[in-house]
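General statements about sequence and structure are easier to judge against a single worked case. For one protein, we set the task of working out the structure tokens from the amino acid sequence alone. This step matters because it turns folding into a mapping between discrete strings. The amino acid sequence and the backbone structure tokens for this protein are reproduced below.
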Amino acid sequence: MNPQALELLAREDARLDREVRRKSLSPDKEIASSLVEIARTLEVEDERTAMQLEFARGLAEWTRSQQVNFPENLFWDFDYPAARVLGHARSLAPGKDLDYVAAAFGRMVELQQRYGVHTTIRFRYVHDFSYGLDWAKWIAREVDQDGSVGPFDWEFLCYLRQRAFELVELIERDDEKYPTLQGGAARNPFSFRRDPESEAAILSELGRRGQLPVCAWDIHASPRFDRPFQALREACAVDLGLSVEA
């Protein structure tokens, strides 16, 4: 692999390891794949130098943005999202492939900045995006979507950007579901608890039950939208005694 690209990913890995514990939702491992491991698994070294550098730069900036904007995030699986971005780029002509990698990772950085703890939206975690829960909800709601647009594809990323503007408008109106938050509270519009212990318990159980739309720890994942994932999460919270009413 190009030494500069490898150094960039290794440096970001070292920084993340100093500042967060990168847990995985994989049933087979406790710690998420490092960025260097992801690049090697995806055989990025087979790409021309310009692509290696663009991919490394984009992946590193995205993970850094996640740590900055969601510092309490618990699970750090980037394998499938990275594979999806690179896979689509590989289907494009030279030049356009570089533009796509830069744009896709750049848009995901922007989404972190629009939804994270430094905004009025102030979500505590990025798990709903990483593991496809936001995407499955979108597919279920949009009658013209058949699943051909994946959870990390450009069209869905554009939807999330527009949705951020809509949420800000709701918050400014002090909407019942999305009110203006006081102090430093994190937003939780759901019917179950989302403190770190509850969030970890619910997501881990969903992973064990095979009830996550995206196995983000697997570069060969097959995203699913054919189940009522939100209802399954709510039922899981009830089973664990973690609903808001519990």
About this structure: The first helix runs from residue 3 to 19. The chain has a mean pLDDT of 96. The two ends are 52 Å apart (CA to CA). Residues 3-189 form one domain.
